[in-house]
Write a structure and sequence with these properties.
The complex is a heterodimer. Chain A is built from 10 helices and 10 strands. Chain A is an alpha/beta fold. Chain A has one domain: Rossmann fold, CATH 3.40.50. In chain B, helix 4 runs antiparallel to helix 9, helix 7 crosses helix 9 and helix 9 packs antiparallel against helix 12. The chains are: A alpha/beta, B mainly alpha.
């Protein structure tokens, strides 16, 4: 059964009966879902229900962990990502992590690193990419005079926007965000949320969040994950964010969003 | 609710903080004094050695001593010019052999061999073997490396007593040091750098070369500088692989004499003990200089990376 959550948009990612195992432990079971393009899809659920594992499957980051095994398919524009070279896939599917992780390089080098790795050598083109990416990440005005400063010298919120700019610089189609604001203060969080709203015009965004208000405020669609009795994560309910938060169909979803567990 | 306040106060008074205060403070003072003395003693001995060698050595050090070559024979006449140059050659040769091998091994063990963890097979066994060997090699007395170098490079490979034999043996000596320091430096690079880089669609090698190695560079440099110090200070290995010619080596197959070796030969085979001290003084100054260089570079890198 395919869960339809998108009435009018185009499906960007289609997950078909996806299972993931860490060794013998099953972390995700029987997940089938379509994720619409140019929309923000948030994933909520209690700790340990596999939200992060799930989005880290989209760019095959889980494969860095020894002993991970997957079953089922994940289609990106109708192409199975497990048939694409992970290096090529990760260029199309960018990622922003929970803790800001700029490289110990200058702001300029942090952003130019990706394009350069993909073969762009011309300094002028690199400069254009850096400026464009920083503007998209709404960081340009704050750092334009200090592009040679270390990325680590920025504040936490700025560092996270730098990481978003860094991801944008390789021109991905999908951006995965794994609790991108959980290490930030409320004002920096708000800035990131505003930024995400602007980005959905060009990108498909999947965001894991622990913060239900954030999901309600900032996303178009919501997936609610829970842990089964064998501790594997599964998809409980999915739909438009407004529906999930105002009129949840599943009792568990209702209990979770009203704060009775999680 | 505490019903009997008097009783609860009494209970508290079982441990009287003031009672043994004097005695406890006294024992603390004695402990501090002993620790201080131990530290002071170690530093004093070190300073005494440096003072003795440098102050006695300085008497023979002048421009002529530094720029003329040893005269040879039992008189110990002449300077140390060729030994300085030979030391420099040997350091460069040894590091040129050991650094790429050592850094490569460490990269393999930290960045690639992790994929094998949990699996069984030939490669896993090999990696564990390398790791154990490195640890054992680090503790092997240097004369053993010398004998190994003599047997393999000097005799079996017929490289004779030469810079090349000595460089190869010296490389064996410092290899464990370079592997271990590089391994440690790589392990301190946060996993988030690797993930952040790979998530941009870079290959593993691009990630290692452009993100991980630069971050680990201060540690790697420290390891190399320590190895340089080790080569400069080493006598046993080179005693049996480099020969002892006081002439300037003409090529890789020439014999030669490093400063440390020269000190040993002067002290054991000639009457020129003052010149042995003079050479030692220069050795000590070089080692001190190297340590300052490590401090300086690591501080420099720290500043650059932390953006402060």
């Amino acid at each position: 059964m395919t869960e339809k959550i998108n009435e009018n948009g185009k499906t960007k990612i289609r997950v078909e009966d996806f299972n993931l195992f860490y060794g013998k432990f099953q972390a995700l079971q029987h997940i089938t879902i379509e994720i619409p393009g140019n929309r923000i899809t948030s994933i909520i659920g209690p700790s340990g229900c596999g939200k992060s594992t799930f989005i880290r499957s989209f760019n095959r980051m889980n494969e860095l962990i020894p002993g991970v095994r997957t079953e089922g398919r994940i289609l990106l524009d109708d192409k199975n990502i497990f048939d694409i070279d992970p290096v090529e896939l990760r260029k199309q599917v960018g990622m922003v992590f929970q803790r800001p992780n700029p490289f110990p390089k200058t702001i300029f080098e942090n952003i130019a690193f990706g394009p350069r790795a993909h073969g762009i050598r011309d300094r002028r083109i690199l400069e254009e990419i850096v400026e464009k990416s920083l503007k998209q990440a709404v960081l340009w005005d704050e750092v334009k005079d200090n592009l040679n400063k270390s990325g680590l010298a920025l504040s936490g919120g700025q560092q996270q926007r730098l990481c978003i700019a860094r991801a944008l610089a390789v021109e991905p189609e999908v951006i995965l965000m794994d609790e991108p604001a959980s290490a930030l203060d409320p004002i920096a969080t708000l800035k990131i949320e505003e930024l995400i709203q602007q980005l959905k015009e060009k990108y498909t965004i999947v965001i894991v969040t622990h913060n239900m208000q954030q999901a309600a405020r900032a996303s178009d669609y919501t997936l609610f994950f829970n842990m089964a009795e064998n501790r594997a994560g599964y998809l409980v309910e999915s739909g438009k964010t407004t529906d999930i938060f105002t009129n949840p169909k599943n009792e568990l979803t209702e209990q979770y969003i009203s704060g009775r567990f999680g | 609710m505490i019903k009997n306040i008097e009783l609860s106060r009494k209970r508290f008074a079982v441990i009287d903080p003031v009672k043994h205060l004097r005695r406890r403070e006294l024992s603390q003072k004695i402990a501090f004094a002993l620790i201080w003395l131990a530290g002071l003693f170690a530093v004093a001995v070190l300073l005494l050695i440096i003072y003795y060698v440098v102050s006695n050595g300085l008497k023979v050090i002048d421009l002529e001593f530094l720029t003329t070559r040893p005269a040879g024979g039992v008189s110990g006449k002449g300077g140390i010019s060729t030994t300085i140059v030979t030391t420099l050659y040997l350091v460069i040769l040894t590091i040129a052999i050991a650094a790429p091998l050592g850094i490569g091994t460490a990269i393999y063990m930290v960045e690639y061999a992790v994929e094998l963890s949990g699996k069984k097979g030939f490669l896993t066994t090999l990696v564990n073997l390398i790791r154990t060997s490195v640890e054992i090699l680090a503790g092997v007395p240097s004369i053993i490396f010398g004998l190994f170098g003599f047997a393999v490079f000097v005799s079996y490979m017929k490289l004779k007593f030469s810079l090349l034999s000595a460089g190869l043996s010296g490389a064996c000596l410092v290899l464990p040091l370079i592997i271990r320091t590089t391994e440690e430096a790589l392990l301190t690079v946060p996993q988030s750098y690797r993930e952040g880089s790979l998530a941009l669609g870079t290959t593993k090698w691009q990630t290692i070369f452009s993100v991980i190695l630069p971050s680990a560079l201060p540690g790697i440099i420290t390891g190399i500088v320590l190895s340089v110090g080790r080569v400069i200070a080493e006598t046993a290995v080179f005693w049996v692989t480099l020969g002892g010619s006081y002439r300037l080596p003409k090529n890789l197959l020439s014999s030669g004499r490093t400063m440390a070796l020269h000190v040993y030969m002067l002290a054991s085979e000639t009457r020129a003990f003052d010149k042995a001290l003079g050479t030692s003084a220069i050795l000590i100054l070089i080692i001190i200089g190297l340590n300052l260089a490590i401090n300086f570079t690591s501080r420099h890198f720290y500043k650059r990376f932390s953006g402060k």
